[in-house]
Specification:
about 70% strand; mainly beta
């Protein structure tokens, strides 16, 4: 239940904000896609922010990222037996929770932003082997950080869209022959709203 609520909230509220200079609060919605080690990663991120000064915002962000990978192992220790040419799959869900600082400015209808954040990442991995009943799971919470930047176009004083890039940084995970990278670079498409 909590997972479904978090996913829905992230997809509805996620994003990289590019906002009007004369409003204090902002939010947005982003789609994210990238790669972390063996895992192609996609998902969204959500934030709500407050403009501390005309060009600097502080915000809370929550996201949801999903990745999966398959491998065939010549030999795989499955506990009681060793499997030959075993097909294994890992599904990985990541929930980054960040406090961000964002610098933003505009030039007419065009605008840009750069920022960084720190926080934690909740990770849950599920491992299955073809032909074997059951699954193995792994969960952990890790310290995390990110940097991000992008450009956008304001359709109105309150509504804008943007393109950007971000890099999520956290500890590597090695799990049953699969691994993540310490860096997850991602492309971002966003829709943003200023109150």
């Amino acid at each position: 239940m909590f997972k479904n609520l978090l996913i829905t909230s992230a997809l509805l509220l996620s994003g990289a904000a590019i906002v009007s200079a004369n409003t204090q609060y902002y939010t947005g919605a982003s789609a994210l896609a990238g790669k972390s080690g063996d895992f192609a990663t996609f998902g969204g991120a959500a934030h709500v922010g407050y403009r501390v000064t005309e060009k600097v915002g502080a915000e809370f962000e929550a996201g949801f990222l999903h990745g999966s990978d398959k491998k065939t192992f010549e030999e795989l220790d499955a506990g009681i037996v060793t499997l030959i040419d075993a097909k294994a799959k890992v599904k990985m869900n990541r929930v980054p929770l960040m406090i961000n600082a964002r610098f933003m400015d505009s030039m007419g209808s065009f605008n840009y932003y750069v920022g960084a954040g720190i926080g934690a990442e909740i990770l849950h991995a599920t491992y299955t082997i073809a032909g074997i009943d059951g699954k193995d799971t792994h969960s952990q919470v890790k310290f995390s950080g990110q940097v991000f930047a992008g450009v956008g176009y304001a359709f109105t004083e309150q509504l804008s869209a943007g393109l950007g890039a971000r890099c999520l940084m956290s500890q590597k995970l090695h799990f049953k022959g699969f691994k993540t990278s310490a860096f997850t670079p991602m492309a971002e498409v966003s829709l943003n709203y200023a109150f």
